[in-house]
Amino acid sequence: MAIRTTPSGPRQQSVHTGVPVLCDTALNRALLARQLLLQRHRLGTVEAVTHLVGLQAQAPNPPYIGLWTRLADFTTAHLARAIEDRSLVRLAVMRSTVHLVTAADCLALRPLTQPALDRDLRASGSAAHTADLPVPALAEEARAALAQRPLTTKELGAALHERWPGVEARHLAYAARALLPLVQVPPRGIWGVGGQTRYATAESWLGEPLAVRPSLEDMVLRYLAAFGPATVKDVQTWSGLTRLRTVIDGLRPRLRVARDTNGNELFDIPGAPLPAPDAPVPVRFLPEFDNILLSHADRDRIISARDRARIFTRNGIVRATILVDGFVRGTWRIDRDGAMATLLIEPFAALAEADRAALAEEGARLLGFAAADADSHDVRIAAPVL
Fold first, then answer.
1. Spatial CB neighbours of 146, under 8 Å, sequence gap ≥ 6
2. Nearest 5°: phi and psi at 330?
3. How confident is the model at residue 377 (pLDDT cuts 50, 70, 90)?
4. 3-state DSSP of the chain
5. How far apart are CA 8 and CA 21, in angstroms?
6. Taking 70 as the threshold, does the pLDDT of residue 11 lie above it?
7. Taking the C-alpha atoms of 5, 328, 27 and 55 in order, what is their torsion angle to the nearest 10 degrees?
8. Would you place residue 385 in the very low, low, confident or very high pLDDT band (cuts 50, 70, 90)?
9. CB–CB of 103/88 below 8 Å?
10. What's the pTM value of the predicted model, to 2 decimals?
11. Do residues 380 and 337 lie in contact, with contact meaning Cβ atoms separated by under 8 Å?
12. 81: left (phi over 0), alpha (psi -120 to 50) or beta
């Protein structure tokens, strides 16, 4: 299919079909708008997490930074309260990865993403050790153990090991995590509070059963509202599910359709924001594991392939990043030395003076949020990491 190369705003037109064609920069601005990053929004914490369909949360603090960079007047107490009052929970869901989601989404999304957790278990080192165990019995035994009180992984494994002494406790606990919706209960996930991870079943923690007939269609529509426009592969990457083409084809009459510059079909919610490619974007600090970097098969709309290798480490860490003009342009970290907190920004290339000034200003605000207990703050911008 031939594509006109002369820009016509965010939408070029396919010569043969008349379908809008969205360049990477147009997709970038759409993604930033859906992800609440073009400006800080005055939303409640639970409302924001609902819109974002959760935030990746295998480490306790990144969701706090992720909400701070998106919301006006956000404080750590806002999220801590929502976790403590059970409005928000942390559990393995999309991509078999721990996310912070609302109680309602926990009950609706966890059953839908069970195939991703099943696949993760089959691919894990625990698979060979648990493959011959009766799944219903293992799940029931784990439920019974957790009914007494929230348990650590070690405690849950030990309880299951009493029933199956021939299997190492750690493999039994891992299998239970895949088979059951296990919520990480506070104080895990509370800013500034340590402690081991303890689990309870979602049903016992929330006092409600999982959804009986959750809707894949609703899940796809919500993804598009938060991450679109997107391809079928993008939706599958975000969710960890496969074979979603049929679901999206069923939704086609309700969707806006475009193409990217490679000719791939993009699906979207009619009326969802599509800012102009030259829409101004403030600098932003994203936390480790931010979903905006993990939720598409083609991530050129936010980060180049070369730069992905700089932030995705071999041990599974996704480093904290800076956005300049909407794209990942470097990494950041906060170092503590006694009462001093230093924000170190490491750009991937030379920055314009205006961008350096904006990063220094926003970085000072980040330190005021993330290192409020430090007596002094310093922002350093390192030489480019070429």
1. 156, 180, 182, 199, 200, 201, 204
2. 165, -175
3. very high
4. CCECCCCECECEEECCCCCEEECHHHHHHHHHHHCCCCCCECCCHHHHHHHHCCEECCCCCHHHHHHHCCECCCCHHHHHHHHHCCCEEEEEECECCEEEEEHHHHHHHHHHCHHHHHHHHHHCCCHHHHCCCCHHHHHHHHHHHHHHCCEEHHHHHHHHHHHCCCCCHHHHHHHHHHHCCEEECCCCCCCCCCCCCEEEEHHHHHCCCCCCCCCHHHHHHHHHHHHCCECHHHHHHHHCCCCCHHHHHHHHHHCEEEEECCCCEEEECCCCCCCCCCCCCCCEEECCCCHHHCCCCCCCCCCCHHHHHHHECCCCCECCEEEECCEEEEEEEEEEECCEEEEEEEECCCCCHHHHHHHHHHHHHHHHHHCCCCCEEEEEECCCCC
5. 10
6. no
7. 170
8. confident
9. yes
10. 0.93
11. no
12. alpha
Give the integer Cα–Cα distance in Å for 110 and 299.
25
pLDDT digits (tens, 9 = 90+) for 303-320: 999 999 999 987 888 999
Asked whether residue 97 carries a pLDDT value surpassing 60, the answer given is yes
CA separation (Å) from 278 to 4, 274, 281? 19, 11, 9
pLDDT at 195: 83
Listed residue (210, 211, 236) closest to 224, CA to CA? 236
Per the listing, tokens 């083609």 go with: 298
Asked whether 158 and 148 are in contact (CB, 8 A), the reply is no
234 close to 227: Cβ distance less than 8 angstroms: yes
Q: Which amino acid is at 48?
A: A
CB 377 within 8 A of CB 368: yes
| Amino acid at residue number 216 | L
pLDDT tens for each residue of 47-84: 999 999 999 999 999 999 999 999 999 999 999 999 99
In single-letter form, the type of residue at position 55 comes to: L
Contact yes or no for 91/98 (Cβ under 8 A): yes
